[in-house]
């Protein structure tokens, strides 16, 4: 594997330009004077405000499942490919069409990169969903664990397969540096995610008898991590998550919403009833996550990847609360007062 310093990005192609992470990453890279050319690719045209932010970046309307992506990479002499089009942040539930997009898209991007002698670096936006969630989970997931514990369905399965395609490319083209970024659940005032939609419900269904531990990653830190992966060229697979852990009940109360404990088999249907029909609907993989939680080991992120998020998990949640427009049903101070009264009553009973 060549030294990363030999592969300083000059011409960068980013897939998923109409998404939050893909589009705003393009905008960041376009503002970097050390990058000569930035090419934004998507089958959908980005919103006008996002397109303006992209500045000098060139937009190509291409379906990455088609051979046209290979022509774009070859004709533009691309040296760095950032595959950010993986469909995991959209609020649409996982489906056969999304699975096809994730898998065929990753296969075509990898095949195009393999055929192009100019490509020297590929970055994949994966997800912490590759770890799944179950009662037998470790306290913290390190990057090696998916080899033993693999999700069998949903977005986690898609991205685990996509990771396999990218690693296969690295084995076939050992002159290409491969970086895989696994962000924890992303939350922020601008990005639209299933977790944000779920926490925004005034009445939030939870699984009775369980208290999942959660980490969040601020949208700005997610962007910064992808930019760092593009520029630094650190080879390997890296968890990316904020410091600190919050339980689901703590998060709901901090927002000022009401918790509705229900049996696990009713979590998805009740959430679907409470949400607008256009909003994210839970599937079994999300139900598992909201039952057992998931916490990542970020040692490698700091030591090998060389990245540190600016926001903690609690700061990410607070920024989401203050700037996303969620309205509290019960003010947080009321929860704290109730907790103090319960503790005081418990002490008196001793």
From TrEMBL:
It comes from the Bacteria. Residues 12-232 form the NAD-dependent epimerase/dehydratase domain. InterPro entries: Epimerase_deHydtase, Lipid_A_modif_metabolic_enz, NAD(P)-bd_dom_sf. PANTHER family: BIFUNCTIONAL POLYMYXIN RESISTANCE PROTEIN ARNA, NAD-DEPENDENT EPIMERASE_DEHYDRATASE. This is NAD-dependent epimerase/dehydratase family protein. The lineage of its organism: Bacteria, Bacillati, Actinomycetota, Actinomycetes, Mycobacteriales.
């Amino acid at each position: 594997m060549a030294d990363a310093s030999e592969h300083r990005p000059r011409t960068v192609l980013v897939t998923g330009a109409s998404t939050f992470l893909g589009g705003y990453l393009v905008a960041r890279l376009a503002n970097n004077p050390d990058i000569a050319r930035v090419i934004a690719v998507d089958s959908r045209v980005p919103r006008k405000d996002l397109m303006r932010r992209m500045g000098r970046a060139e937009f190509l309307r291409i379906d990455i499942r088609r051979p046209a992506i290979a022509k774009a990479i070859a004709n533009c002499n691309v040296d760095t490919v950032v595959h950010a089009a993986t469909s995991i942040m959209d609020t649409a539930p996982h489906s056969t069409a999304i699975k096809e997009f994730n898998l065929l898209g990753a296969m075509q991007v990898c095949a195009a990169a393999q055929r192009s002698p100019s490509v020297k670096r590929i970055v994949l936006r994966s997800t912490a969903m590759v770890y799944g969630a179950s009662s037998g989970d470790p306290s913290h997931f390190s990057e090696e664990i998916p080899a033993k514990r693999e999700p069998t369905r949903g977005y986690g399965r898609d991205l685990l397969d996509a990771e396999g395609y990218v690693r296969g490319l690295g084995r076939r083209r050992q002159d290409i540096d491969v970086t895989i970024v696994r962000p924890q659940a992303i939350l922020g005032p601008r990005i639209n995610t299933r977790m944000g939609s779920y926490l925004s419900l005034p009445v939030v269904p939870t699984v009775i008898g369980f208290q999942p531990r959660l980490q969040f990653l601020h949208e700005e830190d997610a962007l910064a991590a992808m930019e760092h992966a593009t520029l630094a060229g650190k080879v390997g697979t890296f968890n990316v998550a904020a410091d600190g852990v919050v339980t689901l009940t703590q998060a709901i109360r901090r927002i000022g919403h009401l918790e509705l404990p229900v049996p696990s088999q009713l979590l998805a249907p009740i959430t679907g009833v409470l949400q607008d029909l256009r909003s994210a609907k839970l599937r079994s993989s999300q139900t598992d996550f909201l039952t057992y939680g998931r916490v990542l080991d970020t040692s490698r992120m700091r030591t090998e990847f060389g990245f540190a998020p600016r926001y903690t998990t609690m700061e990410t949640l607070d920024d989401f609360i203050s700037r996303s427009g969620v309205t509290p049903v019960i003010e947080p101070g009321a929860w704290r007062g109730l907790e103090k009264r319960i503790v005081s009553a418990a002490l008196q009973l001793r």
